[in-house]
Amino acid sequence: MPEPLVRMEKISKSFGPVRALQNVDLILHHSEVLGLVGDNGAGKSTLMKILTGVHQPDSGQIYFQGQPVRFNSPHDSRAVGIEMVYQDLALAGNLNVADNIYLGRELTRKRLGGLVRLLDHKAMAEGAARLLERLKIEIHSPTLRVETLSGGQRQAVAVARSVGFEAKVVIMDEPTAALAVKEVAKVLDLIRGLKEHDVAVILISHRMPDIFEVCDRIMVLRQGVKVGDVPREQTCMDEIVALITGAQQEVCMEVA
Ligand SMILES: Nc1ncnc2c1ncn2[C@@H]1O[C@H](COP(=O)(O)OP(=O)(O)OP(=O)(O)O)[C@@H](O)[C@H]1O
Ligand SMILES: [Mg+2]
């Protein structure tokens, strides 16, 4: 087996008296879509916040491409290519699609012999259009204002922005929770598109059909403990739901 892209080993984290995670292992292979499921408060978001450097684990180790890493902030995890699409999206509604994609890494051009730098809206619109096309995102124009887009299209812009041009891992926390059926299908297409571009995805969702549609493997957390880790073809929704609720004890086929 080649070295996994991400390996989290024996991660524990408490918030005061709350043991949010206890000795949790996670493996993410190249180009894999991993479903991360569990009841409310199971520790899913906390585990991803540790992977992205938002929180520090109390104990445990993260490896990225085989190397031990320590992410002190989201900036550190972004630097190696781990991107998180946040539940609340955090897009600027009054800006257009291209400006949102380039937010924080704006392209500029020199004017007046280098005396002033102006935002290069044309180059950003062109770059954004190429990125949208590569990710097969259907938005008529990169100059549309984000507040005029549908929920699914906004999600797509958020993904495009986080993928930028070089993400290796994209983490999506409940991307489809607030979307209409048709838009959900597009987000799932987007996830498949990322996989085709060798981007690995971790998808957190309470919607089992979404998980079963796109994920290669499903990992289950229950009250901060990993209780399931199974390839999708070797499980079914009933089993995953039983693992989530505790009706079934534990099935871990992938050993970190
Ligand atoms: N910043 C924090 N401060 C204190 N407690 C926290 C904090 N973040 C998470 N917790 C607690 O840690 C536990 C795990 O929370 P987490 O958000 O990881 O769950 P989750 O699996 O993402 O749940 P959901 O499906 O509801 O989003 C919960 O008991 C939660 O209350
Ligand atoms: Mg959560």
Multimeric state: single chain
Number of strands: 13
Low-confidence stretches: none
Assigned CATH architecture of the domain at 1-81 and 200-256: 3-Layer(aba) Sandwich
Strand content: 25-35%
Please state how the strands of the largest beta sheet are arranged side by side. Answer: 6-9-10-3-11-12-13
The CATH superfamily name of the domain at 1-81 and 200-256 is P-loop containing nucleotide triphosphate hydrolases
How many helical elements? 8
What percent of the residues sit in helical stretches (DSSP H or I)? 25-40%
Form type: globular
Gist of the model:
The chain has helices spanning 44-51, 74-80, 97-101, 121-134, 151-163, 181-196, 208-214, 237-245; strands at 6-15, 18-28, 33-37, 59-64, 67-69, 82-85, 108-111, 116-119, 169-173, 200-204, 217-222, 225-231, 251-252.
Task: Summarize the topology.
Layout: E1 6-15, E2 18-28, E3 33-37, H1 44-51, E4 59-64, E5 67-69, H2 74-80, E6 82-85, H3 97-101, E7 108-111, E8 116-119, H4 121-134, H5 151-163, E9 169-173, H6 181-196, E10 200-204, H7 208-214, E11 217-222, E12 225-231, H8 237-245, E13 251-252
Parallel strand pairs: 3-10, 3-11, 6-9, 9-10, 12-13
Antiparallel strand pairs: 1-2, 1-4, 4-5, 7-8, 11-12
Helix pairs in contact: 5-6
Bound molecules: adenosine-5'-triphosphate and magnesium ion (MG).
Question: What does the model show?
Answer:
It is a single chain. With 256 residues, the chain is of the alpha/beta class. It has a domain at 1-81 and 200-256: 3-Layer(aba) Sandwich (Rossmann fold). It is 31% helix and 28% strand. The chain contains eight helices and 13 strands. A seven-stranded mixed β-sheet has the order 6-9-10-3-11-12-13, with helices on both faces. Strands 2-1-4-5 form a four-stranded antiparallel β-sheet, with helices on one face. The protein is globular and about 65 Å long. The structure holds adenosine-5'-triphosphate (ATP) and magnesium ion. Adenosine-5'-triphosphate binds at residues 15, 18, 20, 38, 40-46. Magnesium ion (MG) binds at residues 44-45, 173.
